[in-house]
Amino acid sequence: MMAAAKTPLEDIVESLGPRLSSKGQTYLISDTKTFSETFTSWSDFNKKVPSAVIKIHTVGDALETVLWLTSNSVPFVIKAGGHGNFCTIGKEGVIIDLSNMKRVTLHEDSVTVEAGILTDELISTLYPQGRCVVSGGCGGVGVSGSCLAGGLGPLIGLHGLISDNILSARVITAAGELIEVSKTKNPDLFWALRGAGMRFGFVVELTFRTYPLSTLGSDDGSIWEMTLMWGEEQLEDLVEALNGLGWTKGEAMGYFGFVHVKEKESDKISPVCLAILHYFGPTSAAEEYFKPLLSLSPFHALSPPPQAQPVRIPYNLINALQVPSQKHGGFKSLFGVGVQRLSVPGMRKIWDRYTQFVSTNPDAYQSAVLVELFSVEKVREVGRKDDTAFPHRDVNIWALPQLWYNDPSTEPAATKFGNEVRKMLQDEDFGSGGKVKAYVNFNRGDESIIDTYGSKERVARLQELKKEWDPRSLFGDLVPSLK
Ligand SMILES: Cc1cc2nc3c(=O)[nH]c(=O)nc-3n(C[C@H](O)[C@H](O)[C@H](O)COP(=O)(O)OP(=O)(O)OC[C@H]3O[C@@H](n4cnc5c(N)ncnc54)[C@H](O)[C@@H]3O)c2cc1C
């Protein structure tokens, strides 16, 4: 009896392998265990097992891979830093893994990177050269994944969104062509790339504007940082103080929220209010600016101990405190939503719900509710001159209920909690007029396309461009879909 002919996917190693560069590799995935052990990602939520993973090394590999996959009608997803919940595909398809595509080319006031580079890798390559770049607030997150959706991060108050700082990109299109995209080359696609970029093509290279470290307000590339914790009895005063700061100064940014920490002597977990503050300027100016918070007597009794004294840290360590939250594995998801201000009674309600959720589901103690506080003046100023597909320049504060649990049976309670807190954040007191403002990078996956891209007009323009550039929806058919 004749053996059945192999499907293209079964034949991928023999068929695609020889077309890749010497270091490019194609791995067939035989079972879930091998996949989970070899190819980790930030969250196991929603995670599927593909038929193969293709680890590419060069732009040439990327092009060969896309041509092979499209000509064999094999669906695929592109994985950069692996922090997206929807960067997943089942047995019907493959993952293109960019973890070996990280070349960096420095220019006088810009930098060109391959699409697999991670945030901290880029920061630490530029820092010794006396340069910095607008990038995300978490070192392990992929530069391309974060910037293509818009890109929030510590320096947006000084220089605009990450995507506002893209000068050009090289993109493999659905037609299998490698093209340049910039203000002057394919400008419509350039508009779409900066906010909805993962939906239009395979971005293989990006060029970003860089800045001298002196824009961080110090001679030595250092910045001011402080981590503080308070008990719930100060919650109302804290929220008042945070609102009072106004966050219109590009030099100041911070994260505030509710987390659980383990006590020093035992494994007992306790909820606390946490703030991580950064200031790009002299210590005296930082202490003056943050006085309303610093004067609220934080305590230092819990482990890990918060810094008792403010310190100056080299800028390349700005994301160091976020390391625990970027750890791969476990079930995690975000229910992000944009708000205009923090409601004092609203934050108390969220605290109550959060502490109740963790006390009844201790497996989920690493869950958190965080808000990101930056000045958005610059983001708005840039947007007035140069519109991009990023829709939510009007949002003042991004609020992030983050679920994290290890036992899949916690899922229903966790989802209920995430939904409820997201709903609370839409209360009138938070100032968003009952509207959901969803940033695609912080989405849970059930947000509508209008909530994600802000208006019917913007969605219509994106849909038109999708028809033009990716009519078969080969790239980034994320939720919510543009179709
Ligand atoms: C702990 C944590 C911290 C975060 N901090 C920030 C932050 O500070 N600022 C911020 O803006 N966001 C932040 N995010 C959100 C993050 O930017 C998104 O999850 C982003 O999609 C992750 O990018 P990635 O490359 O790591 O993930 P991936 O899962 O690899 O990619 C995400 C999506 O982009 C697509 N994609 C990736 N690379 C390409 C490419 N080269 N061409 C085309 N499509 C591509 C993927 O197919 C996938 O759909 C954070 C997320 C987490 C989990």
TrEMBL record:
Superkingdom of this protein's organism: Eukaryota
InterPro entries: BBE, FAD-bd_PCMH, FAD-bd_PCMH-like_sf, FAD-bd_PCMH_sub2, FAD-linked_Oxidoreductase, Oxid_FAD_bind_N
Keyword rRNA-binding: no
Signal peptide: none
UniProt keyword annotation of Oxidoreductase present: yes
Domain FAD-binding PCMH-type stretches: 46-213
Alphabetically ordered keywords of this record: FAD, Flavoprotein, Oxidoreductase
SUPFAM superfamilies membership: FAD-binding/transporter-associated domain-like
Pfam families assigned to the protein according to its UniProt record, in alphabetical order: BBE, FAD_binding_4
Single GO term (MF): FAD binding
Entry similarity comment: Belongs to the oxygen-dependent FAD-linked oxidoreductase family.
Protein name in UniProt: FAD-binding domain-containing protein
Organism annotation: Morchella conica CCBAS932
